[in-house]
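User: If only I could read backbone structure tokens as easily as an amino acid sequence. Underneath my words sits a plain record pairing an amino acid chain with its backbone structure tokens. This is the protein in question:
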Amino acid sequence: MKLLKLVQDYANPNNFGGDKTQKKDFHNWRNETQQMFMLLKQTSYFQVDENNKNIALNIGNYGIFSVENIKRSSKPKQRYFDIHNKNKQTDFELHHIVAISKARNKKEVELLDNVYNLIYLHKDKHLEITKKNNTNVYLSINETKANFCNFNSDKIQAINNSEALYSTDDCIIQKLKKHNRDAISTIYEFNQQISC
């Protein structure tokens, strides 16, 4: 209610000079806000209560997300160490190559919370990627190094067995590449090859 009172005090037409188009009006602001709630209510992503006072992500059995699908699964993380035949290290962290936060629906959560969207990076290398807002999502990888590029071909490189820990098995490397291209195509609608 305090916010409403502050907006009401601010949006008093007497506080502004000029003609009607230059004056702020609380009632116009309230009408525009109600209209936004009505438009959001018509999308599948949000639910709005009857009084148009509360908005929430559409979750539940019939929502886009369900509570259990929003949470990251521990299974892909556990599988990573089995598939890559690596042991956990104190200075390393599992990194989602394409961040789960980019998912817009349940199917995309499943695509991104996947063992082939993970790579085990030294914490300093992981920090280097996160400092760039996780924009380095395009993976170019072989048995010696993994390059993470953004769509402008800016590259962050991680050397295997020192800055990254992953399998040198070509079959696994090819699955990582394929999954990365599928994720980028789905999430970013980007199907071009990058020089990385």
Observations:
- Residues 72-188 form one domain.
- The first strand starts at residue 46 and ends at 48.
